[in-house]
Amino acid sequence: MYTTQMDAARQHIITEEMKAVAAYEQMEEAEVCRLIAAGQLVIPANRHHTCRKSYGIGSMLKTKINVNLGTSRDCLDLDMEMEKVRHAVQMGAEAIMDLSSFGDTQTFRRKLVAECPAILGTVPIYDALVYYHKALKDITAQEWLDVFRMHAEDGVDFMTIHCGINRQTAQRFKQQKRITNIVSRGGSIMFAWMEITGNENPFYEYFDEVLRICREHDVTLSLGDACRPGCLEDAGDIAQMEELVTLGELTQRAWAQDVQVIIEGPGHMPLHQIQANMELQKTICKGAPFYVLGPIVTDVAPGYDHITAAIGGAMAAAYGASFLCYVTPAEHLSLPDVDDVKEGIIASKIAAHAADIAKGVKGAMDWDHQMAVARGNLDWERMFALAMDPDKARAYRAQSAPEREDTCTMCGKMCAIRNMNKLLRGEIVDIMEED
Q1: How many helices (H) and strands (E) are present in the chain, helices listed first?
Q2: 226: annotated binding-site residue?
Q3: Which positions does UniProt annotate for substrate binding (predicted)?
């Protein structure tokens, strides 16, 4: 018998989830088992989430992406959120985080667990405010933990808790001057609770209880980065680094109880700091999978932050991040709609795939090879089938019909591929001739 995927791996038990991950990643089952035992690969798999697919998260695997969604006070439309879920699953997102902060959150969460095959994550700190519906100062340490337990019982596969910002880190933070202060929603809530009550962060103080809950339901911990930088100038400061050290210590404690761990990372960060940040995390947290929120590499592109995040995400994953949190064009501006979600997913998938090629993930280049062959043969239908977004690719060609089927409206009969193919077949190149 085993309690968690890590517990099974340490007993050399190959679970069904490990078999599925090994097949998907083209890896040996024994290697998957070994990496899980070492904490370098996780399979978020709450035993109550029975309809989920099994995905592995680790730097040596295909880079996975997460889609954030959920209701808010200003946008309380459960049907729209479920439509976002359906699109996310159809477009290949491996994970979905329900960040709902208003409404009947438990009903929505349970619906996700019952119907959604993606890995499911939540941030119980948000839900505690909704669930208890009382002033922040009146929520007790036990009540924070009770909501965490409720999410585990509901079937959530991984949960983000901001336990790295303890009273010591909070005091150090206050002594520094940041431009954007704390931009993590969960981190700011926990900071405020500690300031108001004078108590220690309950997820830090009662971390052993958190681990017991995780072990009972096989929940993967996502150790949140409350002090992630919210602008380039705040990146890499003492608060961020001190919190990372604390997360490294908590990782060791979790592993001692056979609990799987993901480490969350920045945030806003200039390009030239990304590699060092990834290396530092791998060192301090002993190779635990790194989950990055971007990184967003410039502060001046609101409306286009799916692009700024894709640039940073590709670099981060190439240097060792395992899990990319998508960013939509609505980042910093509004709750994303369905179209924003699509744009964010595609940008994140491009970043993930580019990184997989860079780090030599098995099979990553095969997709590009097939596309290159189709493009070389001017096989439009095959190109559409292989495209990351087939509908968009097909629509572009349809809206600008070429004179000839073996060209497009960019080059026409000057198409280099068309003419080289004709030359090498011994045919005449008819660029200026009329058909």
Answers
A1: 19, 8
A2: yes
A3: 68, 97, 126, 162, 184-186, 225-228, 264, 291
Contact 76, 110 (CB under 8 A): no
* Residue found by looking up tokens 């995390």 in the block: 281
How far from each other are the two terminal CA atoms of the chain, in whole angstroms? 74
The whole-angstrom separation of Cα 386 and Cα 409 is 21
256 annotated binding-site participant = no
- Fold type of domain 44-52+61-361: TIM Barrel (3.20.20)
Please give the C-alpha separations between residue 425 and each of 122, 374, 411, in angstroms, as whole numbers.
58, 17, 20
Q: How far apart are CA 370 and CA 339, in angstroms?
A: 28
Report whether 227 belongs to an annotated binding site: yes
Give the number of other CB atoms < 10 A from CB of residue 35: 23
Yes or no: say if 431 and 413 are a contact pair by the CB < 8 Å rule. yes
Report pLDDT digits (tens) over 257-313.
999 999 999 999 999 999 999 999 999 999 999 999 999 999 999 999 999 999 999
* 3-state SS assignment for residue 116: coil
Tell which residue, 27, 77, 53, has the closest CA to residue 336: 77
Cα–Cα dist 235/169, whole Å: 16
Residue 268 labeled ligand binder: yes
Q: Give per-residue pLDDT as tens, 89-108.
A: 999 999 999 998 888 899 99
Does the annotation place 231 within a ligand binding site? no
The answer on whether 291 is annotated among ligand-binding residues is yes
Does 24 appear as a known binding residue?
no
**Token pair listed for 194:** 């500690």
Question: Residue 115 and residue 143: Cα distance in Å, rounded?
Answer: 28
The answer on whether 369 is annotated among ligand-binding residues is no
